[in-house]
Amino acid sequence: MNLNSQLDRCVRCGMCSQHCPTYTLTGDENESPRGRIALIRALDAGQIPPGGKLTKHLDHCTSCRACEDYCPSGVRFGSIMDATRTRLASEQTGPPSALLSLATRPRQLLRVGRWLRRYQRWGVQRLARASTLLKRLGLAQQDALLPELAELPPWQEYYPPTGEHCGDVALFTGCVSNVFDRRSLEASRRLLNHFGYGVRVPAAQTCCGAMHLHSGRADTAAELAQHNVAAFVPLIDSGSVQAIVHTASGCTAMLADYPHLSSLPADKHADAQRLADSTTDISQFLAACPQLTQQRPSPLPKTVAVHEPCSLRNVLHQQQAPYALLAHIPELQLRPLPTTTRCCGGAGSYLLTQPEFAQRMRQDQLDALRSLNADTLLTSNIGCALHLQAGLREQGQAVEVLHPVTLLARQLGLLD
Ligand code: SF4
Ligand code: SF4
After folding, report:
1. Is 16 in contact with 34 (CB distance < 8 Å)?
2. In terms of C-beta density within 10 A (0-12 exposed, 13-18 middle, 19 or more buried), how is residue 26 classed?
3. What residue ranges define each of the domains in the chain, with the CATH number in brackets?
4. Alpha-helical segments (H) within 133-200
5. With a 6 A CB cut-off, is 252 part of the ligand 1 pocket?
6. Of the residues 26, 39, 64, 79, which should be mutated to test ligand 1's pocket, given the most ligand atoms within 8 Å of the CB?
7. Whose alpha carbon is nearest atom 2 of ligand 2?
8. Contacts of 171 (CB under 8 A, 6+ apart)
9. Best substitution site from 58, 61, 76, 79 to test ligand 1's pocket, by max atoms within 8 Å of Cβ?
């Protein structure tokens, strides 16, 4: 991407501003997409230095890309931010954060996850939460995000279908999802098998690189992308799988965006495009399966709220998929959160790096949820799920947060 040509596309109309969560929160022009573009232009022209005011306003951007959807000039704001963050990060020194570093080592992250499960099951978490220990160690914020962890067995390379075989798909497991959202991945695997698909789980896959890209580490993101291209593209080229599916829309959006990754070597772009063309959100894939109409899920006579993650809505444009998938559950009433077009503040590592803004954005969503009087909230992105669940726990709101596929698998009796 040519950064200057993207910056020049902006005609300063301001049509994006009212859809930007940080502008809505603050009313500050510097916190709007147009204001950020002006700051980046000024940086380019040498009128302002890196750091200070510039960094503060750029760091507040959640990379939700809502502004792109409303821009009449087609400004690719996400790419502008990624390029600028990479430029600014290269002017800083220091090691990457522990989370970014762990994400590139899936086996170690899995070991950490197994220890965290013991921490929960042996009652240590309960004791630590009741004491001041977590606060004194500076870990209270991280601990508050922990969901109840499922068992984390190693994945098999192949899971055969349980029904009549109609094809194979590849499952992308991700880094954070593989540890903190195994329940949704397992529900997806069982649904796919139940619908007649064999599921391949390539052992050589790794983190998608989204958190690295949005933190200005474009080279690491490109390295991770190349690992995933090597793990999945041969399966696509040989016709061994017909799609690559995933549960976290943030990661699926990143896989779909690989061809636009400017740090990817030029000779890898065609492979990245084939990977992107085959990648889809799990609800989108299952909702389009002809087998769906033959299923008889148990009725669920209640209202369930639906949160539409920015990555599913603004990048993949597949936000209707969970509704289409769950329309087959008798008596279920699905209600979108009234604020669902606004970022909830989860946004990858944003919930940890910008806690004040993240919590203010989340509060809008929690207030909207209260108005729906629902005891279940569906979301298709693990970052949003962890963030929203932590807020609900903190406020004592008894609402279960689930992935749409988990609800369908439950109603079909596929979960233990
Ligand atoms: S990406 Fe989201 S937070 Fe950033 S400027 Fe655009 S709308 Fe605002
Ligand atoms: S809508 Fe597009 S052209 Fe208008 S100010 Fe926003 S980024 Fe610039």
Report:
1. yes
2. middle
3. 3-89 (1.10.1060.10), 98-145 (no CATH), 158-287 (3.40.50), 293-411 (3.40.50)
4. 133-137, 140-145, 176-180, 182-194
5. no
6. 64
7. 71
8. 185, 188, 189, 192, 199, 200, 201, 244, 245, 246
9. 61
Say which residue the tokens 């006579």 belong to. Answer: 301
pTM of the model: 0.90
217 contact partners, CB below 8 Å, separation of at least 6? 86, 89, 96, 100
Report CA dihedral (67, 253, 146, 199) to the nearest 10 degrees.
160
245 forms beta bridges with 171, 280
pLDDT, tens digit, for every residue of 316-371? Answer: 999 999 999 999 999 999 999 987 778 999 877 788 888 899 999 999 999 999 98
Q: What is the greatest pairwise CA distance in the chain?
A: 65
* φ, ψ dihedrals at 378, nearest 5°: -100, 140
Helix runs in 329-415, H state only? 350-353, 355-372, 382-395, 404-411
